[in-house]
Amino acid sequence: MIQIQIPEKLKALAVRADFPLYVVGGTVRDALAGLPSSQDWDICAPADAERFSALAQESGFTVNGVYKNTGTVNLTDGERKYEFTSFRTDVYRRGEHAPSKVTFTKDIATDARRRDFKCNAVYYDVAKETIEDPLGGVKDIERRSLSTTREADEVFSEDGLRLMRLARQAAQTGFVPTLECIFGAKFNAALIAKISPERIYAELQLILHADEKYGRQYAHYEGLKLLEGTDVLNYILPELAAGKGLPQRKDFHDHDVLEHSLRACKYSDRQVRLSALLHDVGKPAVYNAEGHYHGHDAAGEKLARDILERLKAPKKLTDTVCRLVALHMYDLDGKAKENKVRRLIVANYDVYPLLRLVKQADYSGCKDDLNLCPTLQKWDGIVKKMQEEGVPFSLKQLALRGDALENVPPYRRGKILHKLLLWAACDGSLNNEKTLKKQAETFLEESDD
Predict the structure, then answer these.
(1) Residue 294: left if φ>0, alpha if ψ -120 to 50, beta else—which one?
(2) Which of the four CATH numbers 3.40.50.300, 1.50.10.20, 3.30.470.20, 3.30.460.10 does domain 1-143 have?
(3) SS3 content of the chain, % helix, strand, coil (to 5)
(4) Would you say the pTM of this structure is higher than 0.85?
(5) What is the pLDDT of residue 1?
């Protein structure tokens, strides 16, 4: 018998109801597949939203929203959130995520057919503790397969967001889409343009962290490859997709520009997935214009900002990603002088740990080499020396405060302190108040000149 740990309040609600109450979707799928509980509590019934809402409140649930037009109720039992939907069938304007017409039904098979994949259309009767499987979703779960509840072309043409949900769910669960499913997505890939940038960005982030859902190593890479294979990547990240087939030096790379970017993301730490994915996004544009890749880091910084602003990504994250894209090529050959590396580290110390992760991902993505990047071996040695010397890595560690610069106008103190910080980065013994004050006078004179 299927083992689903049903919360006691939900059990009591189901027993009290004069209609069958079902858990559907991820929770049932995961229980049947032996996956860790996803805690996605989607529940449904052949009952209208107001009727269910009233019963839920009587049973001790807190109702946070009732939407009669879609038959949806958002509620909580104090520990977990639930989304209830009445049995229904939906009509869409081609590609748009929200249905244009909702018709309620008492038929479970009709409700099942409105869903995306058969594995998500398996119902668990909470009161009876039995499975209802109107479309054969249990077999798909047993086979670890993803197939659509109706003709794939019809399912994907209705709601463009399903194009990304396919990649995300396949990546998270390890379920393999059927050929019909893949081709249905591919034929409708352009419909992703009907989906809001915010939703695309949210799904992209879930794909980039797909490995964290159930602990499947490199699941995020599988999701990105499915976006590529269904052509959806061409529409959501055309600047990145343009790298497909672009050659790279064989002594440094085993892959073309796009595949290198995907593999850099594959091997990256979870903190820098987006930066790793976009680190070489400037290469296609520069190559097509100049016939080489020189300057792709600067071009990539601008393109990354264009992409992330288009996707309505948070500003702070956008700024960080762009900085990392701009910096990722520094000291690639390991020939940069130590003092220059020191100043780079101090000037970017707020993002330095992330820069290390991006450079490692870039290196690993070249030839699938997980050994420590040689440049980072060099940098780690330099950082160790800086720490032993007592080098200040931030203004807080600088042995001079702004108010001690009596001869410097207040509006210029910040700039002088920053110059002192980079100056002291080259020699930790310089980080004392007397020496710094004297050098501040020199900087002030240079500024006056």
Answers:
(1) beta
(2) 3.30.460.10
(3) 55, 10, 35
(4) yes
(5) 55
